[in-house]
Design goal:
Number of helices: 16
Shape: globular
Helix content: 40-55%
Low-confidence stretches: 1-7, 258-262, 520-526
Structural class: alpha+beta
Distance between the termini: 114 Å
Largest sheet: 8 strands, mixed, barrel
Mean pLDDT: 82
Radius of gyration: 29 Å
Strand content: 15-25%
């Protein structure tokens, strides 16, 4: 066989051997793309249903309390106070009130408001209005669910507040009593609900969408999610355009492999791992002051990341990445080691001082977490009370783990704080079941003090809740003396914020105490 023919045949075999698996992979990617889109749609629909059902349960519970306790005097001061308590302890309800005719006669937000006509009856004694406006939010629409004249006001977007990174995904909550969606984002065909039949869930393709429907087991409602089919087609086309040339040209394949590996190395999860390995993390410490005396009684340790290039990466970016990629336990351990390095024996000489560190739900599951804390304290010659472990409300969503761990930490002498309070989903009854010492009021509520905004009233309810639970309070983000005075006069014990000090190296904290300990200079001529 002539050499040109051999070369040609070899090339043909090589192209076939490379090309056939690639085209097979593309066909498989199309099938898997449909399956992935179906799983994604079903996952989004299930998430929407969870939110809708949770909203329904909060409505039934809150309005049930009002009907039971304040039926004879629906707009008395005591009733309105109860409305505000229900409002504050609910994560989905914006307000509750009493309806006379088609008017909100009184409510947790104050004033009277016209509601308009009822859209449909959602059940015995239950009336639904789907597009109600209020003066405090003129550009937004709210749903109003009324039961025996008591009503709950819900933001229309709350049940579908998911999949925000994919705005083309359509979401909706549908009522079996009305064809119009109660809450909707994107394109929704009301006829899709007929495909559910008597099933609890269904997934199908229609009109360029992969559609998932999930029926509520508690309410006469259905959650819907629709993922555009073009996601699948675009992905398959991209794969085809990318892989075929790579399979046919070995040199391009090698270049692509090198590029892919480089991209992987530069990906943020890999960079976080590298930062932990190279010691690129450091801490700054923000003072916590006693509002009655102005003295520094502690600090919060705030983790920072400076890359080898000198670039500072914001914690709001890398901490969620660490949580999502199983690195948060290592990150917490690194923070503990940095505290030990920075603070040294300072706590041994200042036994009433504390350092607050942020912990995550994954730390609660880590069997070595407790021992690591105690070992670090031994090396610093400090006591458990010198550490405050701060966990967000979202970190307490697993009730059993939260109760067990917070109780164990308290038994060992560690102080436990709930951080960013008011931004999560904690109810009063749930907080009562946990072993807590401090409640940290989120800065968003502090910023509203004195502005006259409706949210400015919430901080007073949070303070009252903390007093009921016998928790010490730390206000975050205090930036003005007026805010500090407001909080002190209402019994808030501690605060942090730029009014008292920006985050700083621990050496500056030590210098502050050294200045406080210096004797006063002798008078001239003494």
């Amino acid at each position: 066989m002539k050499k040109p023919v051999v070369v040609l045949l070899t090339l043909l075999i090589a192209c076939t051997a490379i090309g056939v698996p690639i085209w097979f992979a593309i066909a498989q990617s199309q099938r898997q793309g449909i399956e992935t889109a179906s799983d994604k749609a079903l996952g989004y629909a299930s998430d929407v249903l969870f939110r809708a059902d949770d909203t329904g349960r909060q409505i039934m519970s809150g309005l049930g309390r009002l009907r039971a306790e304040r039926g004879e005097a629906p707009c008395s001061p005591a009733s309105i106070d109860l409305m505000r308590q229900i409002d504050l302890s609910s994560s989905y309800i914006q307000a509750v009130g009493y309806v006379a005719g088609d008017t909100l006669a009184c409510s947790s937000i104050g004033g009277t408001h016209p509601l308009g006509k009822v859209d449909y009856l959602a059940g015995p004694g239950m009336r639904f209005r789907g597009n109600v406006g209020f003066p405090f939010a003129p550009d937004q629409s709210f749903m109003v669910v009324e039961i025996d004249h008591y009503a709950a006001i819900i933001h229309k977007d709350l049940p579908i507040d998911t999949a925000n990174s994919e705005p083309d995904v359509s979401l909706a909550v549908l009522s079996l009593e009305s064809p119009a969606p109660a809450s909707q984002r994107g394109h929704v065909d009301p006829r899709w609900i007929s495909r559910l039949g008597n099933a609890s869930e269904v997934v199908f393709t229609d009109g360029g969408y992969v559609v998932a429907l999930v029926r509520s087991a508690q309410f006469r409602s259905v959650a819907l999610a629709a993922v555009p089919l073009r996601y699948v087609r675009d992905r398959s086309q991209d794969v085809a355009l990318f892989l075929v040339p790579l399979g046919l040209v070995a040199g391009i394949l090698l270049a692509w492999a090198i590029f892919y590996l480089a991209r992987q190395q530069m990906a943020l999860p890999a960079a976080v791992k590298a930062a932990l390995r190279r010691g690129e993390l450091f801490l700054e410490y923000q003072p916590v002051v006693d509002l009655r005396t102005g003295q520094w009684i502690g600090v919060e340790a705030l983790v920072r990341w400076r890359r080898s290039t000198g670039e500072l990466v914001q914690p709001e970016l890398f901490i969620p990445i660490a949580e999502e990629n199983g690195l948060i336990v290592r990150l917490t351990q690194a923070v503990l080691e940095l505290v030990e390095r920075d603070v040294g024996d300072f706590l041994a000489h200042h036994p009433d001082f504390h350092v607050g560190i942020n912990v995550s739900p994954a730390d609660f599951h880590d069997p070595g977490f407790h021992d690591n804390l105690k070992a670090a304290l031994r090396r610093m010659r400090a006591a458990p009370g010198n550490l405050i472990l701060e966990v967000t409300e979202r970190g307490l969503l697993d009730p059993e783990v939260a109760r067990t761990t917070s109780g164990s930490l308290r038994t060992s002498g560690f102080a436990v704080a709930i951080d960013d309070f008011g931004t999560g989903y904690s109810s009063l009854s749930y907080l009562e079941s946990l072993a807590l010492d401090y409640l940290k009021i989120d800065r968003s509520f502090i910023e509203a003090i004195g502005t006259g905004a409706p949210i400015s009233q919430v901080v007073q309810h949070i303070i009252a809740m903390a007093r009921d639970l016998k928790l010490c309070m730390i206000a975050e983000g205090v930036e003005s003396q007026a805010q500090a005075d407001f909080l002190r006069l209402r019994g808030v014990q501690y605060a942090q914020g730029w009014l008292f000090g920006k985050p700083m190296p621990f050496a500056d904290v030590k210098a502050h105490f050294e200045r406080m300990d210096m004797p006063a200079p002798a008078a001239a001529g003494a």
